[in-house]
């Protein structure tokens, strides 16, 4: 009997992982370890990547998805974070000899500031765990997730949470829920390290220090989330990376202006270039989506939040 390399050796498991947005992103001065300490409020939104895994005799990775996404920017070699996650999990179990065939179906914008790569890594951890029956504890999955990247633990958990440190120290945040966001994508991605460099350069040029209160969680935002006060949340949205991202991509200023003309508040998502509009209802989000499409924004989607973290959608 010949063993074809793509012949599955076990069940096929598909795991879905949500994109994240930041309702608040406060960034402190660069620390000695080369990272910026931050305080952020994460929310998982209804825009998902799916990762499908089955055990195989050799490693393989396919990336598919919406042709409007920049899929060519997603590596298919060992630098892909989902593949790194899978290998790291097997190493944790001392099972480096096993391998998997993996397909990533992307809907989350690439280099869009919505942690698409982190979502893939989180989904890959759970998909490999289930497909290869590794029975990893949740604590170990979370620890491996934090080693892979600062946003990966939140992708596992979903919901709404405060992230501290580099974003990996998570604490659940009470959220009355029922939010709707309009996601305005950009044709071109933005590199997260480049945006952090611009943050440092802008402060150096202006002779200013990052806000010493940046790491304090805004109490008005917490209040708005607990009491489902959409206008309060809308006016509290804040992102310290917005100015540096606009410095690198001045065209986003118009997108933010257009976004600010609908809904209850607009903000850049993470390191950008995706722009978010907070809306009070699905109807308001649909109206905002149509208005933004009419203003020439081509990739605009209405999504609910908060949503669950990674979850198995198929086990065949
Ligand atoms: P973040 O907000 O977490 O900084 P992002 O959402 O801006 O990230 P990603 O889509 O996660 O950006 O990708 C950033 C870069 O990581 C890409 O440009 C790509 O080169 C690399 N990359 C590695 N693995 C993946 C993956 N599975 N999906 C997307 N990009 C990946």
TrEMBL record:
Keywords: ATP-binding, Isoprene biosynthesis, Kinase, Nucleotide-binding, Transferase. The keyword Nucleotide-binding applies. GO terms for molecular function: 4-(cytidine 5'-diphospho)-2-C-methyl-D-erythritol kinase activity; ATP binding. The keyword Nucleotide-binding applies. Residues 80-159 form the GHMP kinase N-terminal domain. ATP binds at residues 109-119. Its EC number is 2.7.1.148. The active site is at residues 20, 151. It catalyses: 4-CDP-2-C-methyl-D-erythritol + ATP = 4-CDP-2-C-methyl-D-erythritol 2-phosphate + ADP + H(+). It is an enzyme of class 2 (transferase). GO terms for biological process: isopentenyl diphosphate biosynthetic process, methylerythritol 4-phosphate pathway; terpenoid biosynthetic process. Pathway: Isoprenoid biosynthesis; isopentenyl diphosphate biosynthesis via DXP pathway; isopentenyl diphosphate from 1-deoxy-D-xylulose 5-phosphate: step 3/6. Residues 239-293 form the GHMP kinase C-terminal domain. PANTHER family: 4-DIPHOSPHOCYTIDYL-2-C-METHYL-D-ERYTHRITOL KINASE, CHLOROPLASTIC. Belongs to the GHMP kinase family. IspE subfamily. Catalyzes the phosphorylation of the position 2 hydroxy group of 4-diphosphocytidyl-2C-methyl-D-erythritol. This is 4-diphosphocytidyl-2-C-methyl-D-erythritol kinase. The gene is ispE.
